[in-house]
């Protein structure tokens, strides 16, 4: 679609400073945007592109300096406004109609809403239920007694094991697995004996999990992912762990079993968390950190093992030239030895 800049600004709650009669057809990054596109500036490191951008308008806050020749769309939160502009101009992905809905396999004792979209090669087992307007792409498996809420999207080859519960508006990207057995074994007599995993997984409303995530069922009770939480790809959650509301986990995070993660926690890529810990509300964990003890609410941690993030940064910088430090220590040791020998001779 196309829209005049001032009309778009009105929908976004932004104030136009400049030419508002330009026709807008899309959105683009600040360094590549063209004369029919808008862009945004939320990170000052990209301010250098303000002088050279060809964008028809820049979403920007009132405190950021901007050249006079650039048309500004002044707003409180440029990044969120840019998100809303993408919704206005592009919308969300549309879902194709099933090629052959009769190729799905739905147990007679399962319940699937009439307006759910079920693609070929979906399997819905006995006692499972699928809510209204939910979309199941090819290869999705819904286990016995599992509940899938309204307006969910399960992309190709998602697997939801038996007795799990998905709330409303849950999105699971391709090859994500919900509710497989937790990694639980009792070692006895030289053998690792499997512990039955009798619990389940509960995914609350408005959760989105990226491709290839794995959420283990609990040995007893439940593993739970709180409402509004978002995962990137390839994330593993251990059995019995509870992740709070509105958390953000970046790709390749691994959380062991029986961890209690608070609300609004952000965990950077490749970070790991040891089992049976408590991570408080609002904690931020840097990428590649190894969390091995409880973290109090509001703290920022990083490093291996994870410590205060500022200390972790200093340690990382100190470790960038370990060989040079080794050579300087060796030289100092020689110097001390020489001075001692001279003192003995005196």
Describe the fold and architecture.
β38 (300-302) and β39 (307-308) form a beta hairpin. The protein folds into 2 domains: 3-89, 3-Layer(aba) Sandwich (Udp-n-acetylmuramoylalanyl-d-glutamate--2,6- Diaminopimelate Ligase, Chain: A, domain 1); 101-311, Hexapeptide repeat proteins (UDP N-Acetylglucosamine Acyltransferase, domain 1, 3 Solenoid). The radius of gyration is 27 Å and the shape is flat. The protein starts with a strand and ends with a helix. The strands form 7 sheets. The protein has a 10-stranded parallel sheet with strand order 8-11-14-17-20-25-28-31-34-37, with no helix packed on it. Strands 9-12-15-18-23-26-29-32-35 form a 9-stranded parallel sheet, with no helix packed on it. It is α/β, with parallel strands linked by helices and 346 residues long. The chain is built from 4 helices and 39 strands. 16% of the residues lie in helices and 28% in strands.
Core attributes:
346 residues; alpha/beta; Udp-n-acetylmuramoylalanyl-d-glutamate--2,6- Diaminopimelate Ligase, Chain: A, domain 1; UDP N-Acetylglucosamine Acyltransferase, domain 1; 2 domains; ten-stranded parallel β-sheet; nine-stranded parallel β-sheet; 4 helices
């Amino acid at each position: 679609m196309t829209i005049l800049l001032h009309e778009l600004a009105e929908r976004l709650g932004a104030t136009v400073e400049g030419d508002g009669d330009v026709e807008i057809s899309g959105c683009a990054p600040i360094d590549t945007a063209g004369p029919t596109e808008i862009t945004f500036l939320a990170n000052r490191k990209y301010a250098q592109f303000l002088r050279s951008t060809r964008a028809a308008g820049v979403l920007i806050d009132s405190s950021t300096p901007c050249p006079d020749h650039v048309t500004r769309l002044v707003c409180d939160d440029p990044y969120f406004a840019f998100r809303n502009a993408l919704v206005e101009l592009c919308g969300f992905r549309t879902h194709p109609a099933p090629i052959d809905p009769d190729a799905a396999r739905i147990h007679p004792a399962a319940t699937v809403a009439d307006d759910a979209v079920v693609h070929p090669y979906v399997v819905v087992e006995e006692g499972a239920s699928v809510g209204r307007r939910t979309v199941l792409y090819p290869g999705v498996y819904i286990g016995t007694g599992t509940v899938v809420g309204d307006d969910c999207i399960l992309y190709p080859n998602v697997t939801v094991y038996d007795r799990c519960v998905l709330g409303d508006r849950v999105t699971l990207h391709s090859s994500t697995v919900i509710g497989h057995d937790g990694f639980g074994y009792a070692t006895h007599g030289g053998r690792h004996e499997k512990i039955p995993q009798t619990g389940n997984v509960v995914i609350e409303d408005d959760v989105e999990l990226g491709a290839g995530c794995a959420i283990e069922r609990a040995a007893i009770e439940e593993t739970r992912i709180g409402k509004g939480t978002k995962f990137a790809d390839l994330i593993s959650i251990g059995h019995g762990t509870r992740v709070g509301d509105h958390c953000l986990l970046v790709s390749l995070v691994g959380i062991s079993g029986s961890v209690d993660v608070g609300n609004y926690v952000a965990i950077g890529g490749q970070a790991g968390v040891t089992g049976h810990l408590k991570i408080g509300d609002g904690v931020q964990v840097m990428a590649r950190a190894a969390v091995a003890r409880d973290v109090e609410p509001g703290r920022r941690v990083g490093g291996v093992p994870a410590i205060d993030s500022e200390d972790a940064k200093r340690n990382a910088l100190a470790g960038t030239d370990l060989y040079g430090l080794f050579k300087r220590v060796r030289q100092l040791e020689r110097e001390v030895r020489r001075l001692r020998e001279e003192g003995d001779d005196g």
